[in-house]
Prior knowledge:
By secondary structure, this protein is α/β, with parallel strands linked by helices. The protein has 2 domains: 2-154, no CATH class; 155-204, no CATH class. It has helices at 2-7, 10-27, 54-63, 108-122, 136-145, 156-163, 170-181, 185-198; strands at residues 32-40, 43-52, 67-75, 81-89, 95-103, 129-132, 151-154. A 7-stranded mixed beta sheet has the order 1-2-5-4-3-6-7, with helices on both faces. The N and C termini lie far apart (60 Å).
Amino acid sequence: MALDEVMGGWEDSFIHVFSWKREIEKRSPDSVVEIEWEVVDKKRRFSRMFVALKSCIDGFVQGYRPYLGIDSTILTAKWKGQLAATVGIDGHNWMFLVTYGVFSSKTKDNWEWFMKMLHKAIGSPPGLVISTDAGKGIDKAVTKVFTNGVEHRECMRHLVKNFQKRFRGEVFEKNLWPASRCYKQTTHDRHWNEMLKSCPKATT
């Protein structure tokens, strides 16, 4: 009761979200804040939200590597759903938050909407690479929205997980991750050839 008195109740946050949107747009013009709702019993009910602050947009477009990792995590408090985030990498290999959003579940429609909002915020910077997991909804949403030269790649952790379903052993444990992390073609080829010698049929 004390927390509700000081901070407001859970339900109040949905009422105030539109005021928060107006304040963000007032204090940080050109930020992208999109809130959608649906009508239930003649009342508006929160559906999904996307946020890209102007400083985060400029930080990515003007100064960071053209790489974005995108995924979502489950919300487990009173209100369920998915918290999605778009993350870049700075010059120190630290994460840099570019956008975030909230929606009910990882459906094709929600991911496509999220990608459209992301494209609205940052456009298609030259050389942009977007990395995601192997989920069908997010996978198709990236390729549908970002059509002009943007590369789409799956994250290595998910590729390794699928790889290990068919190939196991010490040689793969020692060489698979180093092959993915190296910056020189010769280093990559050395690790790859070690795995290939162990399993000649694995050519793809």
